[in-house]
Amino acid sequence: MSSLFIRTERSIKEFAQLYPIVTTLVVIHFVLWLMINFMQLPFAIELYYWGFGHNFSITINNEYWRFITPIFLHADLMHTLFNSFALVIFGPALERMLGKGKFIFAYLAAGIIGNLGTYFIDTTSLIPHVGASGSIFGLFGIYMYMVLRRKDLIDSANAQIVLTIFVIGLIMTFIRPNINIAGHIFGFIGGIALSPIILQNAVHFSNYPIHRKRQHKDGEIQFDPNRWNKRRLSKKMKRNLIWIIFAIIAIISLWNRF
């Protein structure tokens, strides 16, 4: 079976065509970062303060939109890069398996559940929080539900990757500074809770056509003499994927400590 987490798209354009929701979310992440942190546009900075998670403002002023808006905001470039990278790795397979509507529902719902959990832990907290981490941990929750209850949707190799990455992510949640632990945990729980509903009628990722086959002008399918080399490369990438992601997480964690 094909790997859920190895990106084999030939271009950014092809990726965007195959995974429009993931692409749109990543674009939103970087556009907001550019306007708020890099360009420092006054209206964008005001938008940031209007939108970040703030439990005290929800409790006192009934600013309930703050359960949603923090999902799209990030603290700095590294925060934006890390969450966008995680979304590009773990989002595409689910977008194809669930469909656009269910995917965006699951993504937003898990993020909201993460923010609700953060709120109920301390309803008068003055500490602001932002980031898509709750939504991304919600995606982990959906994959974990597949591993435990829907083995027809995930093979053993991908299940091992899910378990390993989840353990690494959980460890990093508790050792990295300035992490919204409640948001991660409740986002993950939200993903699991949503899974029995959103995984109805889901089809294994390998059953979807990922690339259009190249054709001759006369309409016949073109033979690709390098396809076996590509297949061997994909297997090698699959073996190294866990360590690549672990190294990236470790580097980012060390970076944030300085």
From TrEMBL:
<dbReference type="InterPro" id="IPR035952">
    <property type="entry name" value="Rhomboid-like_sf"/>
</dbReference>
<feature type="transmembrane region" description="Helical">
    <location>
        <begin position="157"/>
        <end position="175"/>
    </location>
</feature>
<dbReference type="GO" id="GO:0004252">
    <property type="term" value="F:serine-type endopeptidase activity"/>
</dbReference>
<keyword id="KW-0472">Membrane</keyword>
<keyword id="KW-0645">Protease</keyword>
<feature type="transmembrane region" description="Helical">
    <location>
        <begin position="21"/>
        <end position="45"/>
    </location>
</feature>
<keyword id="KW-0812">Transmembrane</keyword>
<dbReference type="GO" id="GO:0006508">
    <property type="term" value="P:proteolysis"/>
</dbReference>
<comment type="similarity">
    <text>Belongs to the peptidase S54 family.</text>
</comment>
<dbReference type="GO" id="GO:0016020">
    <property type="term" value="C:membrane"/>
</dbReference>
<protein>
    <submittedName>
        <fullName>Rhomboid family intramembrane serine protease</fullName>
        <ecNumber>3.4.21.-</ecNumber>
    </submittedName>
</protein>
<feature type="domain" description="Peptidase S54 rhomboid">
    <location>
        <begin position="62"/>
        <end position="200"/>
    </location>
</feature>
<feature type="transmembrane region" description="Helical">
    <location>
        <begin position="103"/>
        <end position="121"/>
    </location>
</feature>
<dbReference type="Pfam" id="PF01694">
    <property type="entry name" value="Rhomboid"/>
</dbReference>
<keyword id="KW-0378">Hydrolase</keyword>
<feature type="transmembrane region" description="Helical">
    <location>
        <begin position="240"/>
        <end position="256"/>
    </location>
</feature>
<feature type="transmembrane region" description="Helical">
    <location>
        <begin position="181"/>
        <end position="203"/>
    </location>
</feature>
<feature type="transmembrane region" description="Helical">
    <location>
        <begin position="127"/>
        <end position="145"/>
    </location>
</feature>
<dbReference type="InterPro" id="IPR050925">
    <property type="entry name" value="Rhomboid_protease_S54"/>
</dbReference>
<feature type="transmembrane region" description="Helical">
    <location>
        <begin position="65"/>
        <end position="91"/>
    </location>
</feature>
<keyword id="KW-1133">Transmembrane helix</keyword>
<dbReference type="InterPro" id="IPR022764">
    <property type="entry name" value="Peptidase_S54_rhomboid_dom"/>
</dbReference>
